Protein backbone atom coordinates (compact mmCIF):
# COMPACT_ATOMS: atom_id res chain seq x y z
CA UNK A 1 0.00 0.00 0.00
CA UNK A 2 2.91 2.31 0.81
CA UNK A 3 4.57 1.66 -2.59
CA UNK A 4 1.27 2.26 -4.40
CA UNK A 5 0.86 5.59 -2.60
CA UNK A 6 4.39 6.71 -3.59
CA UNK A 7 3.89 5.81 -7.31
CA UNK A 8 0.45 7.39 -7.62
CA UNK A 9 1.57 11.05 -7.43
CA UNK A 10 4.37 10.47 -10.03
CA UNK A 11 2.04 8.67 -12.42
CA UNK A 12 -0.54 11.42 -12.11
CA UNK A 13 2.09 14.07 -12.95
CA UNK A 14 3.26 12.17 -16.03
CA UNK A 15 -0.30 11.57 -17.16
CA UNK A 16 -1.16 15.24 -16.79
CA UNK A 17 2.04 16.21 -18.64
CA UNK A 18 1.26 13.76 -21.45
CA UNK A 19 -2.18 15.30 -21.84
CA UNK A 20 -0.80 18.81 -21.84
CA UNK A 21 0.19 20.66 -25.07
CA UNK A 22 3.48 21.85 -23.51
CA UNK A 23 5.61 18.82 -24.60
CA UNK A 24 4.64 19.64 -28.18
CA UNK A 25 4.97 23.40 -27.86
CA UNK A 26 8.28 23.62 -25.98
CA UNK A 27 10.53 22.40 -28.86
CA UNK A 28 8.83 24.85 -31.22
CA UNK A 29 9.18 27.63 -28.65
CA UNK A 30 12.90 26.84 -28.27
CA UNK A 31 13.42 27.00 -32.05
CA UNK A 32 11.52 30.30 -32.32
CA UNK A 33 13.51 31.78 -29.45
CA UNK A 34 16.82 30.73 -31.03
CA UNK A 35 16.02 31.77 -34.61
CA UNK A 36 13.74 34.82 -34.17
CA UNK A 37 13.72 36.32 -30.68
CA UNK A 38 17.46 36.05 -29.97
CA UNK A 39 18.56 37.65 -33.30
CA UNK A 40 16.07 40.49 -32.74
CA UNK A 41 17.40 40.99 -29.21
CA UNK A 42 20.99 40.98 -30.51
CA UNK A 43 20.32 43.47 -33.31
CA UNK A 44 18.61 45.85 -30.86
CA UNK A 45 21.50 45.45 -28.39
CA UNK A 46 24.14 46.04 -31.09
CA UNK A 47 22.26 49.13 -32.29
CA UNK A 48 22.99 50.64 -28.86
CA UNK A 49 26.75 50.18 -29.31
CA UNK A 50 29.57 51.54 -31.47
CA UNK A 51 30.66 48.01 -32.42
CA UNK A 52 32.64 47.33 -35.58
CA UNK A 53 32.74 44.13 -37.62
CA UNK A 54 36.56 44.17 -37.67
CA UNK A 55 36.66 43.42 -33.95
CA UNK A 56 37.86 45.29 -30.90
CA UNK A 57 35.86 46.42 -27.91
CA UNK A 58 32.72 48.51 -27.97
CA UNK A 59 30.76 50.77 -25.69
CA UNK A 60 27.04 51.19 -25.19
CA UNK A 61 25.94 54.50 -26.66
CA UNK A 62 23.16 56.15 -28.64
CA UNK A 63 25.76 57.45 -31.08
CA UNK A 64 24.74 54.92 -33.75
CA UNK A 65 21.22 56.38 -33.89
CA UNK A 66 22.66 59.89 -33.80
CA UNK A 67 25.02 59.24 -36.70
CA UNK A 68 22.20 57.54 -38.64
CA UNK A 69 19.73 60.42 -38.21
CA UNK A 70 22.34 63.12 -38.92
CA UNK A 71 23.93 61.33 -41.87
CA UNK A 72 23.66 63.28 -45.15
CA UNK A 73 22.67 60.01 -46.83
CA UNK A 74 19.78 59.28 -44.42
CA UNK A 75 17.27 61.49 -46.26
CA UNK A 76 18.40 60.12 -49.62
CA UNK A 77 17.96 56.56 -48.36
CA UNK A 78 14.43 57.27 -47.11
CA UNK A 79 13.52 59.08 -50.34
CA UNK A 80 14.84 56.25 -52.53
CA UNK A 81 12.99 53.69 -50.37
CA UNK A 82 9.73 55.69 -50.44
CA UNK A 83 9.81 56.09 -54.23
CA UNK A 84 10.79 52.44 -54.71
CA UNK A 85 8.06 51.10 -52.39
CA UNK A 86 5.27 53.45 -53.52
CA UNK A 87 5.57 52.85 -57.26
CA UNK A 88 6.39 49.16 -56.84
CA UNK A 89 3.31 48.50 -54.70
CA UNK A 90 1.06 50.70 -56.85
CA UNK A 91 1.89 49.02 -60.15
CA UNK A 92 2.23 45.51 -58.72
CA UNK A 93 -1.33 45.71 -57.42
CA UNK A 94 -2.70 47.43 -60.53
CA UNK A 95 -1.06 45.04 -63.01
CA UNK A 96 -1.74 42.05 -60.76
CA UNK A 97 -5.43 42.97 -60.65
CA UNK A 98 -5.68 43.46 -64.43
CA UNK A 99 -3.89 40.18 -65.20
CA UNK A 100 -5.95 38.29 -62.61
CA UNK A 101 -9.17 39.73 -64.05
CA UNK A 102 -8.12 38.79 -67.60
CA UNK A 103 -7.12 35.26 -66.55
CA UNK A 104 -10.38 34.84 -64.61
CA UNK A 105 -12.52 35.99 -67.53
CA UNK A 106 -10.54 33.74 -69.88
CA UNK A 107 -10.99 30.75 -67.58
CA UNK A 108 -14.75 31.40 -67.30
CA UNK A 109 -14.93 31.32 -71.12
CA UNK A 110 -12.84 28.14 -71.34
CA UNK A 111 -9.84 29.78 -73.04
CA UNK A 112 -6.67 27.68 -72.75
CA UNK A 113 -4.54 30.82 -73.20
CA UNK A 114 -5.50 31.81 -69.65
CA UNK A 115 -3.61 28.78 -68.31
CA UNK A 116 -0.53 29.72 -70.36
CA UNK A 117 -0.73 33.32 -69.10
CA UNK A 118 -1.12 32.18 -65.50
CA UNK A 119 1.89 29.84 -65.82
CA UNK A 120 4.05 32.52 -67.45
CA UNK A 121 3.28 35.04 -64.72
CA UNK A 122 3.91 32.47 -61.99
CA UNK A 123 7.35 31.70 -63.46
CA UNK A 124 8.45 35.29 -62.70
CA UNK A 125 7.48 34.79 -59.06
CA UNK A 126 9.51 31.57 -58.82
CA UNK A 127 12.79 33.08 -60.09
CA UNK A 128 15.24 34.08 -57.29
CA UNK A 129 15.83 37.81 -56.85
CA UNK A 130 19.55 37.56 -57.68
CA UNK A 131 18.77 35.91 -61.02
CA UNK A 132 16.17 38.60 -61.76
CA UNK A 133 18.77 41.27 -61.04
CA UNK A 134 21.24 39.66 -63.46
CA UNK A 135 18.58 39.28 -66.16
CA UNK A 136 17.53 42.92 -65.93
CA UNK A 137 21.15 44.11 -65.81
CA UNK A 138 21.64 42.41 -69.19
CA UNK A 139 18.49 44.08 -70.53
CA UNK A 140 19.62 47.47 -69.22
CA UNK A 141 23.18 47.37 -70.64
CA UNK A 142 24.05 50.76 -72.15
CA UNK A 143 26.24 49.19 -74.84
CA UNK A 144 24.96 47.54 -78.01
CA UNK A 145 24.68 44.29 -76.06
CA UNK A 146 21.79 45.74 -74.06
CA UNK A 147 18.48 44.43 -75.37
CA UNK A 148 16.43 47.54 -74.53
CA UNK A 149 18.98 49.99 -75.96
CA UNK A 150 19.26 47.82 -79.08
CA UNK A 151 15.48 47.99 -79.59
CA UNK A 152 15.47 51.74 -78.95
CA UNK A 153 18.29 52.11 -81.48
CA UNK A 154 16.11 50.49 -84.16
CA UNK A 155 13.67 53.39 -83.90
CA UNK A 156 16.39 56.04 -83.64
CA UNK A 157 16.34 56.47 -79.87
CA UNK A 158 18.91 55.98 -77.14
CA UNK A 159 21.19 54.89 -75.81
CA UNK A 160 19.50 55.41 -72.45
CA UNK A 161 21.71 55.28 -69.31
CA UNK A 162 19.35 52.93 -67.47
CA UNK A 163 21.81 52.09 -64.69
CA UNK A 164 24.43 54.86 -64.83
CA UNK A 165 22.11 57.87 -64.40
CA UNK A 166 20.76 58.27 -60.82
CA UNK A 167 17.15 59.06 -61.84
CA UNK A 168 17.01 56.40 -64.55
CA UNK A 169 18.63 53.88 -62.20
CA UNK A 170 15.93 54.22 -59.51
CA UNK A 171 13.19 53.97 -62.14
CA UNK A 172 14.91 50.94 -63.71
CA UNK A 173 15.20 49.13 -60.37
CA UNK A 174 11.56 49.91 -59.58
CA UNK A 175 10.45 48.56 -62.98
CA UNK A 176 12.36 45.31 -62.42
CA UNK A 177 10.75 44.93 -58.98
CA UNK A 178 7.28 45.58 -60.46
CA UNK A 179 7.91 42.76 -62.95
CA UNK A 180 9.00 40.50 -60.11
CA UNK A 181 6.18 41.25 -57.66
CA UNK A 182 3.20 41.45 -60.01
CA UNK A 183 2.95 37.65 -60.00
CA UNK A 184 2.23 37.47 -56.26
CA UNK A 185 -0.50 40.10 -56.50
CA UNK A 186 -2.02 38.25 -59.44
CA UNK A 187 -2.07 34.97 -57.49
CA UNK A 188 -3.76 36.49 -54.45
CA UNK A 189 -6.31 38.52 -56.41
CA UNK A 190 -7.06 35.62 -58.77
CA UNK A 191 -7.76 33.43 -55.72
CA UNK A 192 -10.07 36.15 -54.42
CA UNK A 193 -11.94 36.30 -57.73
CA UNK A 194 -12.63 32.56 -57.49
CA UNK A 195 -14.45 33.13 -54.19
CA UNK A 196 -16.90 35.73 -55.52
CA UNK A 197 -20.48 34.39 -55.43
CA UNK A 198 -21.78 33.72 -58.92
CA UNK A 199 -25.36 34.57 -57.93
CA UNK A 200 -24.36 38.14 -57.02
CA UNK A 201 -22.56 38.64 -60.34
CA UNK A 202 -25.51 37.10 -62.19
CA UNK A 203 -27.94 39.40 -60.34
CA UNK A 204 -25.89 42.42 -61.44
CA UNK A 205 -26.09 41.26 -65.07
CA UNK A 206 -29.86 40.65 -64.81
CA UNK A 207 -30.32 44.16 -63.39
CA UNK A 208 -28.64 45.56 -66.51
CA UNK A 209 -25.31 46.56 -64.98
CA UNK A 210 -22.56 47.15 -67.53
CA UNK A 211 -19.17 45.45 -67.23
CA UNK A 212 -17.65 48.62 -65.76
CA UNK A 213 -20.50 49.01 -63.25
CA UNK A 214 -20.21 45.36 -62.20
CA UNK A 215 -16.47 45.84 -61.73
CA UNK A 216 -16.64 49.04 -59.69
CA UNK A 217 -19.84 48.41 -57.71
CA UNK A 218 -19.78 44.63 -57.19
CA UNK A 219 -16.36 43.08 -57.78
CA UNK A 220 -14.15 45.73 -56.15
CA UNK A 221 -16.25 46.07 -52.94
CA UNK A 222 -16.30 42.27 -52.55
CA UNK A 223 -12.54 42.08 -53.17
CA UNK A 224 -11.69 45.00 -50.86
CA UNK A 225 -10.55 42.86 -47.87
CA UNK A 226 -8.25 40.77 -50.09
CA UNK A 227 -6.89 43.89 -51.76
CA UNK A 228 -6.06 45.43 -48.37
CA UNK A 229 -4.29 42.25 -47.24
CA UNK A 230 -2.43 42.14 -50.56
CA UNK A 231 -1.42 45.77 -50.05
CA UNK A 232 0.09 45.05 -46.64
CA UNK A 233 1.93 41.87 -47.73
CA UNK A 234 3.34 43.45 -50.89
CA UNK A 235 4.44 46.52 -48.91
CA UNK A 236 6.31 44.38 -46.37
CA UNK A 237 7.97 42.36 -49.13
CA UNK A 238 9.01 45.49 -51.03
CA UNK A 239 10.43 47.16 -47.92
CA UNK A 240 12.61 44.06 -47.41
CA UNK A 241 13.76 43.79 -51.04
CA UNK A 242 17.52 43.39 -51.04
CA UNK A 243 18.86 40.65 -53.30
CA UNK A 244 17.56 41.96 -56.62
CA UNK A 245 18.81 45.53 -56.00
CA UNK A 246 22.21 44.22 -54.91
CA UNK A 247 22.61 42.17 -58.10
CA UNK A 248 21.26 44.93 -60.36
CA UNK A 249 23.00 48.11 -59.13
CA UNK A 250 24.60 47.39 -55.74
CA UNK A 251 22.94 50.63 -54.56
CA UNK A 252 24.58 52.84 -57.19
CA UNK A 253 25.29 54.97 -59.03
CA UNK A 254 26.50 56.72 -55.90
CA UNK A 255 23.71 55.82 -53.46
CA UNK A 256 20.81 56.54 -55.80
CA UNK A 257 19.25 53.08 -55.43
CA UNK A 258 20.36 52.26 -51.89
CA UNK A 259 17.10 51.28 -50.19
CA UNK A 260 16.95 50.55 -46.44
CA UNK A 261 17.55 46.79 -46.68
CA UNK A 262 20.55 47.26 -48.97
CA UNK A 263 21.91 50.07 -46.79
CA UNK A 264 22.01 47.65 -43.85
CA UNK A 265 24.14 45.23 -45.89
CA UNK A 266 26.48 47.97 -47.12
CA UNK A 267 27.00 49.47 -43.66
CA UNK A 268 27.75 46.14 -41.99
CA UNK A 269 29.58 44.14 -44.68
CA UNK A 270 31.13 46.91 -46.84
CA UNK A 271 31.88 49.62 -44.27
CA UNK A 272 32.09 47.23 -41.25
CA UNK A 273 30.01 49.64 -39.12
CA UNK A 274 28.05 47.11 -37.08
CA UNK A 275 26.46 49.64 -34.70
CA UNK A 276 24.99 52.04 -37.32
CA UNK A 277 24.04 49.08 -39.51
CA UNK A 278 22.15 47.53 -36.58
CA UNK A 279 20.44 50.88 -35.92
CA UNK A 280 19.24 50.95 -39.54
CA UNK A 281 18.04 47.36 -39.14
CA UNK A 282 15.99 48.41 -36.09
CA UNK A 283 14.42 51.14 -38.23
CA UNK A 284 13.42 48.55 -40.84
CA UNK A 285 12.21 46.24 -38.07
CA UNK A 286 9.94 49.01 -36.76
CA UNK A 287 8.45 49.53 -40.23
CA UNK A 288 7.81 45.80 -40.58
CA UNK A 289 6.28 45.63 -37.09
CA UNK A 290 3.79 48.39 -37.94
CA UNK A 291 2.85 46.73 -41.24
CA UNK A 292 2.49 43.35 -39.54
CA UNK A 293 0.22 44.86 -36.87
CA UNK A 294 -1.97 46.30 -39.63
CA UNK A 295 -2.04 42.89 -41.34
CA UNK A 296 -3.05 41.09 -38.13
CA UNK A 297 -5.76 43.69 -37.46
CA UNK A 298 -7.15 43.16 -40.97
CA UNK A 299 -7.23 39.39 -40.46
CA UNK A 300 -9.05 39.80 -37.12
CA UNK A 301 -11.61 42.07 -38.77
CA UNK A 302 -12.13 39.47 -41.51
CA UNK A 303 -12.76 36.78 -38.87
CA UNK A 304 -15.22 39.03 -37.03
CA UNK A 305 -17.14 39.71 -40.25
CA UNK A 306 -17.16 36.00 -41.11
UniProtKB/TrEMBL annotation:
Read off the InterPro entries from this record: MetI-like (IPR000515), MetI-like_sf (IPR035906)
Domain spans labelled ABC transmembrane type-1: 78-295
| PANTHER family (UniProt xref) | BLR7065 PROTEIN (PTHR43005), SPERMIDINE_PUTRESCINE TRANSPORT SYSTEM PERMEASE PROTEIN (PTHR43005:SF1)
Location in or out of the cell? Cell membrane
**Protein name, please?**
Sugar ABC transporter permease
Q: How does it sit in the membrane?
A: Multi-pass membrane protein
Q: Tell me the organism.
A: Rubrobacter xylanophilus
Provide one Gene Ontology biological process annotation. transmembrane transport
Amino acid sequence: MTAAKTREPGGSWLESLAGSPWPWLLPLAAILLATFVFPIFEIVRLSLTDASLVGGGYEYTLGSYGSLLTSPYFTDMLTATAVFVFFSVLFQMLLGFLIALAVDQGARRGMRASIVTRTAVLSAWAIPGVIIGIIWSILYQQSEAGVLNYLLGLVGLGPVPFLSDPEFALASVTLANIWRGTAFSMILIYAGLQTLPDDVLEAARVDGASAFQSLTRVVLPLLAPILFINLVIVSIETFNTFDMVLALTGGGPGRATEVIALSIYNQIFQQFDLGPGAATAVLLLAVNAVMTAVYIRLLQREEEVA
